[in-house]
Design brief:
By secondary structure, the protein is an alpha/beta fold. The protein contains 17 helices and eight strands. A five-stranded parallel sheet has the order 2-3-4-1-5, sandwiched between helices. It has a three-stranded antiparallel sheet with strand order 6-8-7. The structure holds adenosine-5'-diphosphate and magnesium ion.
Length: about 400
């Protein structure tokens, strides 16, 4: 059987973190939500921020990008960053991205106003500290002034933007990672701006532990945000995620082929891209048949192993891998009791708490509730049980 290279080149599916999919299924309600925020902001009405949480590969980054697009197209000033968890970097990115956002404003008049608002901040800051302009602050002094500087910046920008019937939306990805100091400052800031009736909102995305991280940082965080869980897509959306791009590129899936794709992808957006790509490449007929989907499945699984699982597995040290493997043995992909993991490893919970902590730091596991532990990546447990025996230190994704 000969493949048609021109059709391979038309393959619309492409797995990869933050990669814009050919069809953004299942996002209508969220786009409407942000459209409503935009409309209310323009009318001078207040909003809550939005927090999206879910496992890896669920579409959060792509959704955040789409929402930023939608709001900036409607005249909202938007900034976006990915939190790193390093205090200096997180602060720097906040200042940098917010300043950059004002430079992207189309209206020259408004852009000038924002620029002069920003320019006045440093002098205010110096007088607040009781030092003359031109005095160089030590790193420590500068660090202490960060929350104040951010507040001045956001408040003066929001004031100008409110006068122009718009506002400032800050999109933060991997928000659960953010250092607690900038995170706390951001949450207080949205709270304060709300009290002053100024249009500044955080739209954040992160792992399922994110709502807990926010409430621990500031107890009132619960009231400031609308919390949305980003889970598996329903079958109808999943089917559309396969069929729409395939049809648009001239080669739809046959009904039974589509049923199989829906079944193997479990409504995980990352899986849609991997299985869609492999089935398309394996197909030599139009429409694409069930046999092609089946023929492509090993390739899709290999792509998922490499792109989603192996690279993350490799980040863990030997002890971390033991912990991850114990989790898989106890409960497959489901959350399990931390104490049971320790028992499985033949240790006391205290002895493995450092390992658990380092895996949380690496973003590989999270605690869905007190005393429980779970993988951040859907299918990780299955992967470990299936592939871990063949994966030494030198595992490179090939079999
Ligand atoms: N609505 C969607 N429909 C189909 N595929 C999607 C959708 N959103 C994202 N994807 C795909 O899923 C994968 C993971 O998306 P991403 O936004 O990086 O997830 P997360 O940030 O939750 O880890 C990417 O390959 C992306 O192309
Ligand atoms: Mg992401």
């Amino acid at each position: 059987m000969k493949k048609q290279p021109s059709l391979d080149a038309l393959n619309p599916f492409m797995p990869g973190a933050g990669m814009r999919p050919p069809e953004l299924v299942g996002r209508d309600a969220d786009i409407e939500n942000v459209d409503r925020m935009v409309a209310r902001t323009k009318l001078g009405n207040l909003n809550q921020g939005i927090i999206f949480s879910g496992l890896r590969g669920m579409r959060k980054t792509v959704l955040l990008l789409a929402l930023q697009d939608a709001s900036s197209r409607q005249g909202i000033v938007t900034a976006r960053l990915e939190a790193k968890g390093d205090i200096g970097t997180d602060w720097d990115m906040l200042f940098h991205e917010i300043a950059l956002a004002t430079a992207r404003v189309k209206s020259l008049r408004l852009r000038r106003k924002l620029a002069s608002a920003l320019a006045s901040i440093d002098s205010v800051q110096f007088s607040f500290l009781g030092v003359g302009a031109g005095v160089k602050l030590s790193d420590e002094e500068r660090r202490r002034t960060n929350p104040f500087r951010l507040e001045l910046m956001v408040e003066s920008l929001s004031r100008e933007l409110a006068k122009a019937n718009t506002g400032l939306f800050l999109f933060v990805d991997e928000l659960q990672e953010m250092d607690d100091e900038p995170l706390g400052a951001l949450i207080s800031l949205q709270h304060k701006m709300g009290q002053e009736g100024l249009p500044f909102y955080i739209i954040g995305a992160g792992l399922p532990n994110l709502p807990g991280v926010l409430s621990r940082s500031r107890s009132y965080a619960e009231r400031l945000f609308e919390y949305r869980t980003i889970g598996q897509l329903p079958d109808s959306d999943t089917a559309e995620g396969f069929q729409k791009p395939a049809r648009a590129n001239g080669r739809p899936f046959a009904d039974d082929a589509l049923d199989e794709l829906v079944k193997v992808s479990h409504g995980y957006p990352y899986f849609i891209q991997a299985y869609g790509k492999a089935a398309w490449n394996a197909s030599d007929s139009n429409p694409t048949l069930l046999e092609a989907v089946r023929a492509g499945e090993p390739e899709a699984r290999r792509e998922l192993d490499e792109g989603l699982y192996a690279s993350r597995w490799q980040r863990a040290k030997t002890s971390g891998r033991e912990y991850l493997t114990a989790m898989a043995k106890i409960n497959g992909d489901e959350p399990c009791d931390s104490s049971a993991v320790a028992a499985e490893m033949g240790k006391q919970p205290k002895e493995v708490s450092m390992i658990r902590e380092s895996l949380i730091q690496l973003g590989l596991v999270y605690s869905p509730e007190h005393g429980k532990i779970a993988y951040t990546i859907p299918g990780m447990g299955e992967f470990i049980l299936r592939a871990a025996p063949t994966m030494g230190q030198t595992y490179d994704g090939r079999r």
